[in-house]
């Protein structure tokens, strides 16, 4: 049995197990933190993409998440977590070219839709939302684990999150473990040969390079873990 399986709808003031509340502030901290991290690592991401892609990943992700933060800051009145994620996803789709905008845009929109109108949510909704995000990415990108894409970071993270929450860990601890699993998956892309996306045109020459999409995904997962662990 999962902990915290009660659904939380508007007005619910319960706290999630471990004193962690996942709410609109958490989502704002996540996306703002992701934007800061992607901005900071922009040149690194671009270098990784220069090796096996078209050297625009850092710029693209930085521009997209900067636009997300601006958009969220300009929203009138309180917005539910699901609405924030849906808005963020739409912003990424419209501001980021290449594959990463539509992929992360779809991921966040699916997660937002999964959360619906709830003001606060627990571990069950969190896993459902991240499952939906992963499903959207896999569907749109037609990529599986081992293809040397963002899925190599996102899939093990979502799997680890579910396992840890099922074992009764707090959301903060489970997200921290999920982030580590994502980083491990990111590092595991180095020896892989790309079979999806622009890097796949390189064939064997894609081997020996870390995938930029998996790398930015690990950064975004790190921001998610941080957004919960720093909650006051
Ligand atoms: Mg690129």
Which stretches are low in confidence, meaning pLDDT under 50 for 5 or more residues running? 1-19
**Can you summarize the main beta sheet?**
2 strands, antiparallel
DSSP summary: helix tally: 9
CATH architecture descriptor text: Alpha Horseshoe
Strands, total number: 2
The span between the termini is 28 Å
CATH class: Mainly Alpha
Number of domains: 1
- The portion of residues assigned to helices is 55-70%
Would you give the CATH topology? Serine Threonine Protein Phosphatase 5, Tetratricopeptide repeat
The overall average pLDDT, rounded, is: 90
- What is the strand content? under 5%
Radius of gyration: 17 Å
Which structural category fits the helices and strands?
mainly alpha
- The arrangement of helices and strands along the chain is EHHHHHEHHHH
Strand order of the largest sheet: 1-2
Global shape: globular
Bound molecules: magnesium ion
CATH superfamily: DhaL domain
Short summary of the structure?
The chain has 232 residues and is mainly α.
């Amino acid at each position: 049995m999962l902990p915290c399986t009660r659904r939380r709808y508007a007005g619910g003031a319960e706290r999630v197990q471990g004193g962690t509340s996942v709410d609109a502030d958490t989502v704002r901290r996540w996306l703002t933190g992701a934007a800061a991290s992607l901005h900071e690592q922009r040149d690194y991401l671009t270098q990784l993409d220069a090796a096996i892609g078209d050297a625009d990943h850092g710029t693209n992700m930085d521009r997209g998440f900067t636009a997300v933060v601006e958009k969220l800051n300009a929203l009138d009145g309180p917005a539910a977590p699901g609405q924030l994620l849906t808005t963020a996803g739409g912003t990424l789709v419209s501001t980021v070219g290449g594959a990463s905008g539509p992929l992360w845009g779809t991921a966040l929109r699916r997660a937002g839709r999964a959360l619906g109108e709830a003001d606060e949510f627990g571990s069950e909704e969190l896993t459902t939302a991240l499952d939906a995000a992963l499903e959207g990415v896999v569907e749109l990108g037609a990529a599986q684990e081992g293809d040397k894409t963002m899925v190599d970071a996102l899939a093990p993270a979502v799997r680890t999150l579910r396992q840890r929450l099922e074992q009764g860990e707090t959301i903060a601890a489970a997200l921290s473990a999920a982030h580590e699993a994502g980083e491990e998956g990111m590092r595991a892309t180095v020896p892989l040969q790309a079979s999806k996306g622009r890097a796949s045109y390189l064939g064997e020459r894609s081997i020996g390079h870390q995938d930029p999409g998996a790398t930015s995904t690990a950064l975004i997962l790190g921001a998610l873990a941080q957004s919960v662990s720093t909650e006051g």
